[in-house]
């Protein structure tokens, strides 16, 4: 049986890979939907092409603009269908050696696996893998057993499941007596393919000391999931991957357009570290 690190290195072969976020426009049924799925697809593909131009190591597609988020039990079929359409079009333009992942907010972990299977993607980002917490869209329960059983049922074992621990935009008071390291060990025990360490919110930096602690005590790949910038990237280089979205946008705000100069500067610097 391959270790999580072995599986990770088959997909991401750099010491510290950079994964660029494609923040998909608000989808049908959401308050901010513009009325055109074709425009949403076109923009998502354009952002992907920018990332490819600057030789990013991977792409993560997420329905970030679907605010306010709802939990997966309230999803309509249009959400999964729309994300499948977007991912299918992006998959067409990304070289085989560039891994692609998907996250469906909020807690759409099974839906993300279904999309990944249908579109031949490489990984998903999952919420609520171990323990419970209160997110801004409501109560989030542990899901590891359900996710991995579903992955087996649909024969998607080649889709890696990267999991947030003590995730951003959430209250963890209900598990206040469980440390970050204990949470990470539980996720590792429950067969996570990669642990995602974040700050408290989108764009907020993760704690460097927490990263060091995880690297010393965990054998599962560690990804940084928020707050990486050209100024602090050096500090996170012991991580196995950096998921970057907000920093590439104008003024460093996730809802803005990608600013190519910011992307170029970051990628130039990260290759020198």
UniProtKB/TrEMBL annotation:
<comment type="similarity">
    <text>Belongs to the BtpA family.</text>
</comment>
<protein>
    <submittedName>
        <fullName>Uncharacterized protein</fullName>
    </submittedName>
</protein>
<dbReference type="InterPro" id="IPR011060">
    <property type="entry name" value="RibuloseP-bd_barrel"/>
</dbReference>
<dbReference type="Pfam" id="PF03437">
    <property type="entry name" value="BtpA"/>
</dbReference>
<dbReference type="InterPro" id="IPR005137">
    <property type="entry name" value="BtpA"/>
</dbReference>
């Amino acid at each position: 049986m391959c270790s999580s690190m072995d599986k990770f290195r088959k997909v991401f072969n750099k010491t510290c890979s950079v994964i660029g976020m494609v923040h998909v426009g608000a989808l049908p049924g959401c308050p901010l939907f513009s009325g055109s799925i074709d425009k949403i697809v076109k923009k998502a593909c354009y952002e992907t092409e920018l990332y490819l131009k600057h030789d990013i190591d991977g792409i993560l597609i997420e329905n970030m603009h679907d605010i306010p988020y709802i939990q997966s039990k309230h999803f309509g079929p249009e959400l999964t269908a729309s994300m499948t359409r977007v991912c299918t079009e992006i998959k067409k333009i990304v070289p085989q050696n560039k891994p692609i992942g998907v996250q469906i907010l909020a807690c759409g972990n099974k839906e993300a696996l279904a999309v990944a299977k249908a579109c031949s993607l490489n990984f998903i980002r999952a919420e609520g893998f171990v323990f419970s917490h209160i997110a801004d869209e409501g109560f989030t329960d542990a899901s590891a057993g359900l996710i991995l059983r579903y992955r087996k049922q649909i024969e998607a074992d080649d889709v890696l499941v990267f999991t947030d621990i003590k995730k951003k935009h959430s209250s963890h008071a209900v598990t206040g007596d469980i440390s970050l390291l204990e949470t990470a060990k539980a996720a590792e025990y429950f067969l996570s393919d990669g642990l995602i360490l974040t700050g408290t919110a989108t764009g907020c930096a993760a704690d460097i000391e927490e990263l060091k602690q995880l690297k010393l005590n965990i054998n599962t790949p560690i990804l940084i999931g928020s707050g990486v910038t050209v100024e602090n990237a050096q500090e996170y280089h012991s991580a196995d991957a950096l998921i970057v979205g907000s920093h590439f946008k104008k003024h460093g705000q996730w809802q803005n357009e990608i600013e190519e100069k910011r992307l170029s500067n970051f990628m130039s610097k990260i290759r020198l570290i």
